[in-house]
Specification:
With about 80 residues, the protein is mainly alpha-helical. It contains three helices and no strands. The longest helix is centred in the middle third of the chain and has 35 residues.
Length: about 80
């Protein structure tokens, strides 16, 4: 879900940013947008990986693992 939502939001934000700055859509801009989408998807996958590792660690240490603690632990581990 994180990756599925992050990629469209970054694409929309990039297009809005290009529009507000008045840039033309050139080949270089398209290549940059494709690179942005790839980096965004990769970052989302790493976030999920760290969140999953933090959740498993919390489950081993504590009887109940809250999402807040897992997000806090995974964000500091990055």
């Amino acid at each position: 879900m994180i990756v599925a939502l992050a990629v469209p939001f970054s694409a929309i934000g990039a297009v809005w940013f290009l529009y507000f700055l008045g840039y033309n859509m050139s080949i270089a801009v398209w290549v940059g947008l494709i690179a942005l989408l790839g980096v965004d998807a990769e970052t989302g996958v790493f976030m999920l990986l760290y969140l999953d590792l933090a959740y498993e660690e919390q489950r081993r240490q504590v009887a109940f693992a809250t999402l807040r603690n897992c997000v806090r632990l995974s964000s500091t581990a990055r």
